Amino acid sequence: MNTEKDFSPLTPNIVRALNDKLYEKRKVAALEIEKLVREFVAQNNSTQIKHVIQILASEFALSQHPHSRKGGLIGLAACSIALGKDSGLYLKELIEPVLTCFNDSDSRLRYYACEALYNIVKVARGAVLPHFNLLFDGLSKLAADPDPNVKSGSELLDRLLKDIVTESNTFDLVAFVPLLRERIYSNNQYARQFIISWIHVLESVPDINLLDYLPEILDGLFQILGDNSKEIRRTCEVVLGEFLKEIKKTPSSVKFAEMANILVIHCQVADETKLTNDLIQLTAMTWMREFIQLAGRVVLPYSSGILTAVLPCLSYDDRKKNTKEAASACNHSLMKLVTSEDDEENEDEKSRGTGSPSTAEGQPKMEGDGNDMLNASQESVGFSNISFFTPATADRPQVNLDLDGIVQVLDRHLHDSSTGMMTRIAVLKWLYHLYIKTPRKMFRHTDSLFPILLKTLSDESDEVILKDLEVLAEIASSPAGQSDQASSCDSTDSKLVLKVPDGPKQGQQPNAGPKTADGSPSTPSMNSYFYKFMINLLKRFSLERKLLENRGAFIIRQLCLLLHAENIFHSMADILLKEEDLKFASTMVQTLNTILLTSAELFQLRNQLKDLHTQESCALFCCLYRSWCHNPVATVSLCFLTQNYKHAYDLIQKFGNLEVTVDFLMEVDKLVQLIESPIFTYLRLQLLDVENNPYLIKALYGLLMLLPQSQAFQLLSHRLRCVPNPELMRSVDESKYMDSKQQVACKRASHTNMDYNELLQHFDRVQSKHLEVRHQRIGRGASDHPDRKLL
C-alpha cells in the first residue's frame, strides 16, 4: 500500500497500524477509528463518516494485501460499534466489502470477515433485515466452509441473525423465497443443514406465513429428506411434520393443486435399493393421503398421476407395510371422490363433441403447468422413468375428473406383466367403480379395454378373476352399453338380444330390447356387449384349453351369479350351435352340462327346466338341446333333467349307431354317478311309479346295457333291482290316481308342443357331422387319437 497517499481523516499512525501483520496493533488502530467516528457522530458529520467507511472499504478491505484486508475488516467493525443505532444509515457500505471477503482464499481472513460482520449485525439488529438476502447468501457459503474455525464463526453469526428474524415483524418473506428456492437444491451436506435449519426457524415464527410459499420449496424439502446424514433427515422430517400439522389446521388457505404433482413425483421410487428413498416415498404418500382427505375433489384433475404413484405400492410386502397402508388409504379416498356427477358432460366436452378418445397405446402427452419451481424440481430429481401428470385443462374453473388419464393408467397396469396381484385387484376395482359411477363416459373406452379384460381371465389369482368378471358383467349388463350397431359384436350371426333379469340394478333404469325370431321369449335382454362377451369367452376357452379345464367351471359359475344363468346358457348354446370345431363344442357342452347338473348357483335354472310347465322353459330346453347334441351323453342327461324320459330312451336307442369310445363310456359312468346324487332325487322317486314312467326305466336299462361290467354297472343294476312290482304299487282309489296323473300330463303337454321327431333328426345330423370329422382324422393318419380308443 502507498503510505504517502492521503487517508485523512485517518492519521498516518492509524493507517500504519491497520497494515501491520500483528493483530494487536490492528486492534489498537480499530480503537482509534472507533474514537474518531464517535467524534464525527457527536458533530453529526455524516460526510466524514462516509469518507472513513469508504477508505476502509476500498483501500483496506478490498486491498490486494492480506494484512491490509484484515485491517480494513476490523476497522469497519469499529465504525459500526461507534455508530451504534445510527449504523443502519450506513449498512450497505459496511456490509458489502465484508461479504466480499467471505470469498477470500485465506481461511484466517474469512474468519476475520465473519467476526467483523457479527459485530456489525449485533449493533444494527433489525436494521440489517433489508439486507437479509445478502447476509443469507454469504452465510450459506460459509456453512460449507472446510475450515472449522470459519464454520464455527459462521454458526455464531447464523444464530444471531436467527434471533433477529425471530423477534422482528418486518421480515420480507416475498423477497427471500426466490433465494431460498434456489439454494434449497444444494447437494452439500452442510448447506442443506443450514437451509433446513432456517426453514425450521421461519416456520415457527407466528408472523411469518411460510405455508403460502410451501409449493415453491416442497420439492426441495423432499430432496433434503433423502440426504445421507441422519441428523439432516430427522430435522427435515420435523419440518415437514410441522408443515403438515399447519395444513390440517388451515386447509382452506392451502394451495393443494400446486403441490399435488410434487407429491406424485416423490411417491414413485426411482431407486429401490436406496433406503432413503423409502423414507421419501412414505412421507410423500402420507402427505398425499392427507391432501386427498382435506382437498377433496380439488385433486381429481391429478387423479391419473396419483394412481400412477399409488397403485404399485399396493403390492408391497411387509417390509414396506406403512407405505402400503398409506397408499391403500389414498386409493380408497380417491375412489370415493368419483361420483355419478362426473358422468355429466362439462362445457369443454360439449364444445369438443362426444367422440371417443383415441385408443392408441402410449403415454399421455404431458403439458407444462407454468410452475418454474416444479420444472426445476423435475431436473434436480433426475427421475427419468417417473410418470408426471398435469390437469387436463390448466385454468379450468370447474373441477373435472381426468377420466381419460385414469383409464390409460389402469390399462397400462393391466398390460404390465410385472404388476402385483393386489395392484391388479385395485385396478379392476377402479374399473368397476368407474362403470358404476360414470357408465356413459366409460363406454367410450370399452372397446380398448375389452381385450385386456378378457385376457385377465387367465390370471393365476382367483381373486383377480373374480374382480375381472365383475367388471365384465357390469359392462355386459349396463344400460349405458346398449347399442344398435352391428359392430358391437364380433360375429354377424349374433342375433340374440338378451335383457336384464328380474328388474333393473340399483340406480339403473330397465332397458327392454326388441326380441328377435331366434331369441327365447324367456331370455332377458342385455346390452350389445353381452353377446360379444360370450363369443370372446368361448373363443378364449377354445384357444386356451387349460383355462377351460382349470378355470372354466369357476368362471361360468361366477358369471351365473353376476348376470343370469339363463342368459349365460342360452347365449352359449346359441354360439356353440354354430361352432365349427366340433371337438371343442363337445367338450364345452360337457362342461356346461356338468355345471348345470351339479352347481348350487344353477338351482333356479334346474327347477325351471325340470317340469317344462311354461312356454319359456320349453323354448330354453329346445335351445340347449340343439347344442347339447354335440355330446350324446349330455343330451340324455338334459332329457333326464327335464323329465323327457321317452325322448331319452329314443336317444339311447340311437347310441348303437355311434362310435363307443373310452371317453364316451366314462361320460356314461359319470351320468350314473349323477343319477345317484341329490340332484336326481325326484327321478329316483319316480321309479316307484312304474306304470306312468316306463320309459324312464327303459332308458336306465339302456344305459345299463351300454356299460361294461364295472362299478357303475353294479351301481345302476342294484338300483334297477330295487324298482318295485307295479301290482304292489297300485293305489286303493285307482281312478282318482289316474285322473290326477292325466291332469299333470295335460298341464305339461299344453305348454310343450315340441316336435320330438324334429329334435331326434337334429341329433342325427349333429352326430353325423362328428362322425365325418372323425373319419377325416383317420384319413389324415390320426388313428392313434385318444378318441379312437375303443373298449
UniProtKB/TrEMBL annotation:
Keywords on record: Endoplasmic reticulum, Endosome, Membrane, Microsome, Repeat
Localization of this protein: Endosome membrane; Microsome membrane
Protein name stated in the entry: Protein VAC14 homolog
Oligomeric and partner information: Forms pentamers. Component of the PI(3,5)P2 regulatory complex/PAS complex, at least composed of PIKFYVE, FIG4 and VAC14. VAC14 nucleates the assembly of the complex and serves as a scaffold by pentamerizing into a star-shaped structure, which can bind a single copy each of PIKFYVE and FIG4 and coordinates their activities. Interacts with NOS1.
Family that this chain belongs to: Belongs to the VAC14 family.
Coiled-coil features, chain-numbered ranges: none
Domain Vacuolar protein 14 C-terminal Fig4-binding: 545-723
GO cellular component, one term: PAS complex
Pfam families named among the record's database cross-references: Vac14_Fab1_bd, Vac14_Fig4_bd
Disordered: annotated span: 339-374, 497-523
Organism: Menidia menidia
Gene Ontology biological process: phosphatidylinositol biosynthetic process
Domain of life of the native organism: Eukaryota
Its biological purpose: Scaffold protein component of the PI(3,5)P2 regulatory complex which regulates both the synthesis and turnover of phosphatidylinositol 3,5-bisphosphate (PtdIns(3,5)P2). Pentamerizes into a star-shaped structure and nucleates the assembly of the complex. The pentamer binds a single copy each of PIKFYVE and FIG4 and coordinates both PIKfyve kinase activity and FIG4 phosphatase activity, being required to maintain normal levels of phosphatidylinositol 3-phosphate (PtdIns(3)P) and phosphatidylinositol 5-phosphate (PtdIns(5)P).
